[in-house]
Design a protein that fits this description.
single chain; Glutaconate Coenzyme A-transferase; eight-stranded parallel β-sheet; eight-stranded mixed β-sheet; 15 helices; 27% helix; globular
Length: 445
Amino acid sequence: MITRQSAAPARTISSEEAAALVRSGMWLDYGVGICQPDVFDHALAARRHDLENVKIRSCLTMRPRAVLETDPEGRHFHSFSWHFSAYDRHQHDRGRCHYTPQHVGEAPDYYRRFLAPIDIVILKTCPIDQDGYFNFSASNMWHRAAIESARLVIVEVSPTLPYACGHQNGVHVSEVDYIVEGDLQPTPELVNPQPSEIDRAVAHRIAAEIEDGSCLQIGIGGMPNAVCSLLQESGVRDLGVHTEMLTDGIVDLYRAGLITGARKTLDPGKIVYSFALGSAALYKAIDHNPDLVCHPVDYTNPPRQIMRNSRAVAINNTTQIDLQGQAASESDGHRHISGTGGQLQFVHGAYASPEGKSFICLASTYEQHGQHRSRIVLDLTPGNIVTTPRTDMMYVATEFGLVNLKGKSVAERAKALIGLAHPDFREDLERQAYENRLIPRGVSF
């Protein structure tokens, strides 16, 4: 789909010539994950002393950004992220990266309605194909909308990116202003840690709830991916996938023949996703594979889309939950650590799906400053952001159990969540619940 027309035919220029197009005060967009530019970034960093107040939007940065590394005091460049990676989080701790709240599935609308015009969009893409398109690889997200909103479009071509089949997953050469030859760095990988015993214990509880024909959304993290490992042992069949993030765990299920998509209403037979992060094996599975289709997030994430597949199952992490069922999944007090992402949209969509289920999972405890602490608490840490409200919470799982909070009173919720806490903390939590009248005395459940 061609929606933008460049003023002149696309011209190949050097990264230095491309960086010379940037002026002080401009807004740039670097795109998402594996689509973020590298040679342009280094060339722009080399111009730092010529520039002031250049603002750069990005998401899930997978490599160090030269514009930030060479400007530690933020005199020239400012970074704004839609969702933090570990690197973005580190830059936020240094005061160099700033979070922008969003439901990920709404991002294309933000670009079209509220952010236009962007001065320059710079995306890493696959080389031009036989139809004249530069494929976005496995990171479609909102790139089409950003291009439509841009005054200038630059593509940084990299032959090492996997070519991802999908919908609106590329930009036509007629929409491009300049082409920059990229480097031969391999596609950045996201290391998948081995699931811990706690991860596996939680995953066992969730996997037992997944039925034949379920349509999966798997969030980022060891715990949701542990569910994928256990599903290979469970005997479940004819799974489908409609997800935001494509993970190694999903591709492992695909290779094992457990994902057929045969019972999906929307895109039967296809694994639908919006971006992928993982191992080289994941990227190899994506490359030119028509079974795996990469769509923009306003296709994958709206609840009205998710609910079209029966038995939608959403599996996501949180870091803290209070006794009323509020989940804080993106901050530690005022320290931002990730983002809202698609969690709440998939919680809504899975609940609305016929026979759908939403799971929020967490380990019951964590270690901080040498202290053993509970993730299930009376009150959320001051400053913590509520990602999933209590009214939207369905299943909650820890290594100690799984409960469905739908239809439960505040008192019933508190009792149920205390039962999911580590035994070391249950007595204090119950006392706090009584003292704060979450649980009335004399009532048994």
